[in-house]
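Session log. Operator J.P. requested a structure for one protein chain; no other inputs attached. Running the standard single-chain path with C-alpha cell output.
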Amino acid sequence: MTIHIERTVINQILSHALQAPEQEVCGLIGTRAGSARVYPVKNVAGERDHLFAMDPQQQIEAMRRMRESGEALFAIYHSHPHAPATPSALDLAQAAYPEALYLIVSLNTKGVLEMQGYRLHGQRVEPVELEMITD
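Structure written below.
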C-alpha cells in the first residue's frame, strides 16, 4: 500500500524537525477531502534527545481543531535526531492510534533527511510506502 503525502506537508514536518535538530519533535496531521494540515505539538519529555511526549494541552487543542474543521487524524509524526527512521520499542509501546499512520523523520543521515511511514499494531510494525505528491 502506498500513502500519498503532499509536498507542503512533508516540508512542514522536515522544517519542524530541523528547528530542534538535537531534540525529538512531534505533531499530528489531520486530513479532510484529500488535503492535510500539520499540527506541531510541543515535546514535553524529560530527555527530548531520544524521547517524545506530546504536551497534553496542545494535543487536545490540535484534536479539537481537527474535529471542528471536519478533519480526521491521518498521522502522528516525530523525529529521531540520532537514530534511524524506524520505530523504537518505546514508540511501539506508546502507539495508541492503530488507525493512524506513524511518520518518523531521521536526522541521523549526512545531508539527507529520511522519512519513513509505518502502521503500528501492538508489537507488529508494518512499513508503508510513502509517495510525495505536488500540491
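Operator note: Residues 67 and 73 are 9 Å apart (CA to CA).
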